[in-house]
């Protein structure tokens, strides 16, 4: 029998006033300009950085990062539904000590971001590692 896959459950509440809460945590009031599309992009950036930090730690390094994402929503040709059709994720990271295999580290970070894996459009990434474009 194959080993059982880990399972991660998430719970979010959105009240009638527009406040969001993760599980039983404190509610956050998001300004009107924060659309669901912005939240998806923010989730992608955060997940990508979390994935990068995980793989850097496994390689014995610390990583501090920030990033941004932009996306285009329009009708998809294949089904006529509105969806993200382009997403670019830019991440600027400082890794100490500097990794020997930067491309390998970044490939693992991209592969293991479950938000990116959950999207129908594959995000394009632009990485800056220790001040240099990777």
Keywords:
single chain; 134 residues; alpha+beta; GMP Synthetase, Chain A, domain 3; 4-stranded mixed beta sheet; 3 helices; 7 strands; globular
Description:
The protein is an alpha+beta fold. 28% of the residues lie in helices and 34% in strands. The chain contains 3 helices and 7 strands. Strand 1 (12-14) and strand 2 (19-22) form a beta hairpin. The chain is globular and about 50 Å long.
Summarize the structure.
This protein is of the alpha+beta class.
Mean pLDDT comes to 96
Strand content: 25-35%
Count of helices?
3
**What is the CATH architecture descriptor?**
2-Layer Sandwich
Helix content: 25-40%
Give me the CATH fold name.
Answer: GMP Synthetase, Chain A, domain 3
Main sheet characteristics: 4 strands, mixed
Low-confidence stretches at least 5 residues in length (pLDDT < 50)? none
In CATH, what is the homologous superfamily? K homology (KH) domain
What's the helix-strand series? Answer: EEEHEEHHEE
Distance between the termini: 41 Å
Number of strands: 7
Overall number of domains? 1
Query: Tell me, what is the CATH class?
Result: Alpha Beta
- Global Rg: 17 Å
Structural class: alpha+beta
């Amino acid at each position: 029998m194959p080993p059982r896959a880990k399972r991660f459950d998430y719970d979010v509440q959105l009240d009638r006033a527009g406040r969001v809460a993760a599980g039983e945590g404190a509610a956050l009031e998001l300004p009107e300009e924060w659309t669901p599309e912005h939240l998806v992009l923010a989730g992608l950036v955060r997940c990508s950085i979390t994935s990068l930090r995980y793989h850097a730690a496994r390689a014995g390094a610390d990583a501090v990062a920030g990033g941004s994402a932009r996306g285009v929503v329009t009708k998809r040709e294949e089904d006529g539904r509105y969806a993200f059709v382009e997403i670019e994720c830019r991440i600027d990271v400082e890794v100490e000590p500097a990794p020997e295999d930067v491309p390998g580290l970044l490939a693992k970070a991209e592969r293991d971001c479950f938000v990116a894996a959950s999207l129908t459009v594959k995000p394009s990434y632009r990485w800056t590692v220790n001040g240099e474009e990777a």
